[in-house]
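Deadline looming. Please check this record:
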Amino acid sequence: MPDHKPQTAADLTIDDMHAARARIAPYIHRTPVLTSSYLNELTGADLHFKCENFQKAGAFKARGASNAVFGLSDEQAARGVATHSSGNHALSLSYAAGRRGIPCHVVMPRTAPQAKKDAVRGYGGIITECEPSTTSREEVFARVQQETGAEFVHPYNDPRVIAGQATCSAELIEQVEGLDAVIAPIGGGGMVSGCCLTLSTLAPDVQIYAAEPEQADDAARSFRAGHIIADDAPETVADGLKVPLKDNTWHFVSRNVTDILTASEEEIIDAMKLTWARMKIVIEASCAVPLAVILKNREVFAGRRVGVIITGGNVDLDRLPWIK
């Protein structure tokens, strides 16, 4: 039977998540869930951290990228893949393309962390730099795609990518029973959409929260307004969360998310530092936003069993945000 090929988010079903899970199993880790009695006491909640910072390429995005790359026909794959990304999707697509032995072309903002650029090149990715705005990114990308003929794998607005990200929450509900809520960072909304796809079917009683920087709060404003509001170039320490929602992720966010909560730059940095100090794990600023939001909104989460998705650990160690 030929693979079901969803064209839009509305076409995605739980079967696409199951198919993605089988397809990507040889190429990804089933990541661990960690707990911290200190953070439980501090928040009043029972927190379970799903550690995608230990994922291949250092981020959850290896799931969606692998699903897209290994779902291509041989004819499509021969032309390679291409994307634009501030970092983790670039790394992940380069990783997956390398495992399949095909070229990967990446448009990255010139301001992206050097550690991420080095890692993309280390996985064999070919980088073209752009200015740090959505407009510049899309213009430069259009040129690269035209020159290469490569298959576009969008960082999040792609049903294949969303189906791959959905495998993370599928693992989480197997690893931790009886969750009341799951919270994940939101930028473009790929991970949150994946949570929506999986949980709305397999665990419909689990509430889904998204966490966002105050300085890049377009998803929160979109959620309140009932339509997508896009910022072109927000500034935040959470560099993975600067991109706007698109139609495929908005489909899930608008239907399945309970709330989108925000945290200040200082709160995000404090939560990142706290996680490093107390859990002894390396996480990016973007991944600290859920904990920052939980600490800020204790009354929402207290007394509840909460899955917290730590989305990545690709940090530029020479530019830690608490070192002035």
Notes: The chain has two domains: 9-60+158-310, 62-152. Strands lie at 33-34, 46-51, 81-84, 104-109, 126-130, 151-152, 181-185, 207-213, 259-263, 305-310. The two ends are 58 Å apart (CA to CA).
